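Q: I'm writing a short explainer about Apolipoprotein N-acyltransferase for a general audience and would like to include a description of its predicted shape. Could you first generate the structure from this sequence?
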Amino acid sequence: MLGLFSPLEKAPWLACVLLAPLIHMLNHNGKTGIFKGLMAGWIFGALSWASGTFWLLNAMESLMDLAFWQSSLSLAGIWLYQGSPFALFGAVCGWMNGKGTPAGPLFCASLLTLLIYLRPVLFPVSWTVAAAFWPGFIQIADLGGELFVCFCLIWANGLVADVFSGIRQRKVKDFARSFISLSILLALVLGYGVCRIAMLNGDERETVGRIIRVASVQPNVPVRWDRKTIVNFKTDEAICLDALIRNPDLVRDADLLLFPELPRMDCRSEEFEKSGLRAELEYLRVPALMHGKEEIPATEAPVIHRLETEDRSIVEEKLEARYSAVFALDPGKECTPVYRKRIPVPFSETSFYSYFFPERIQKPGLKLWLSRGSNPGLIHVGDFLVQPLICFESGFPELVREGVGLGGDLVVELSNDGWFFSSRAEMKHLGMAVFRAVEFRRPLVRSSNSGGGAHVRATGEIAGATLTPHGRALVTQATLFCPDVSTVFARRGYVWLWGAVLIVCWNMRSAQRRGRKAVSCRV
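A: Of course. Here's the predicted structure. Afterward I'll give you a sentence or two in plain language.
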C-alpha cells in the first residue's frame, strides 16, 4: 500500500499485487457488508494517497503560502476525495456479498476502472503510475490509454487474490483456475509489450519516420531564497546561463532547446538581456522554448491588487487576462508567446470553483487567477510540429490527443517540481508523462527545474543518461525517433469502457436476481 501511488522503479511488478489484500478482504471473507466495504475502501485509498503524495504538504506551504495547519487540513480533504473511488468500490463489493455473489476479478477491474474514470479529476494521478517504468507491461496503453493499463493491473490483482484464497482454503480447482488465468493475462500483456517495442525499434533502425535532436536545461533554480543565499542572489536567467555554458557541445547541434517552467523568468525583461542568456542563444543558433507569464492589459478591466514577492508591495493593475505561457525564441527574432496553459493547477493557479466552471474564471477581487488557453499551440521546428505542455498538463491525455490529431510529432513539457522538495514528486510527474508517450507513440521531452527531467522514447523507455537527478544543474540531449503511426487510443479513445459498463451491469443484475431467489427460497 505504501507504494501504491508512487513509481516502483526497482520492482514495478509489485503493482500486480498491491491491491490484492483489499480485494481479498472485500470478496473472500464472506463478512464484508456495504458499510464495512465502504470504510475499508476509503481508508485504503486515502492512506495510499497520503503515503504516495506526502510531499504536497511542502508544495502548499511554499507555493500557496498556507500555514502548516491549513496545508494539513487541505491535504486531508484531498486524500479523502481521492480515496472516494475505492470507497464506492468497497461498498458495491459489500452489496454483492450481501446478495451471495462475491465480486470476481473481471468485475472488480471493470468497476474500479470506471469509478476512477468518472471521478472529477483534481490531481490526475492514477495509481497505475506505480508501473510507469515497466515498459513491457505499459505498451497496452496505445490500445486504450493509461486506464486500460489500470484495468489490466486491477484484473491481475483480483486474480492474485483468488490464487491466495484458493491456497488458504485448500481448493485446488479454484487455485489452478485462477493461476492459469493470471498466467494467460500476464503472457498476453507482456507478449504484446515485447512485440510492440521490437516493432518500433525495427522502424527506428529502418528509419520509417524522422529523428529530432532535443536538448534540455535543468538549472536547479531555488524555489525560495533564504537569508543565506539572498546575499548571492542571481536571477533565474543568470542561473540558466550558468547551466547552459557548462555543456555547450550538448546544445550546439540540437534542433531545439528547452528551459523549464520558472515563475520569475521572462525572456522580454531587462534581466534576460543583462544576464547574457540571449547573447549565448544567438551564438549557439538554436531555437529555444521557455516559460513565462503573459499579461494582457485592458483599460476597462477591474483593478487587481497583486502582492509582489520581491519587495512585498501592492501593485495595482488593470488586466484583461493573465496566462502561464510558452515563449519561442528563434535566432535573430523577438521572443513571442506560442502557447497558453489550458489547465491551471487548482487552488494555486485557479480557484476550486473556476476549475469546474471554466467559463467563469475572473472575478474582481484580491487575487488574479490564471486565464485558460484555447488551443494546442503547435510550434513549427524545422519540419516538425512540437506540442508544448506546462507542468500539470502532462496528466491529461485529451490534450495530447488533440495535438497529435493536428499532426504533432513531438511533445515537450516544461515543468517546475522544486516546490515539492521531493524526488518522489518528480518521478511521479515523470511517470505520468511516460504514459502520454506510449498512448500516442510520440517521443516526449520533460524539462524540469530540479529533477525528474528525461527524454522519453515512443516506447516509454527513458533515453540513456537523460534522467536528471534531484537538485543538480546540468544539460541533457538525445536524438529521438518520431514514428509515423496512429494508435488505437488516438483514434478511438475510451470507447472500450463500454465493455466495462456491460460487465458491471450484467454482474450486478445477476447478483440482484440471485438475491431475490435466495429470499424466495427462505420464504
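A: For your explainer, you could say: The chain has a mean pLDDT of 85.
Q: Perfect, that's easy to follow.
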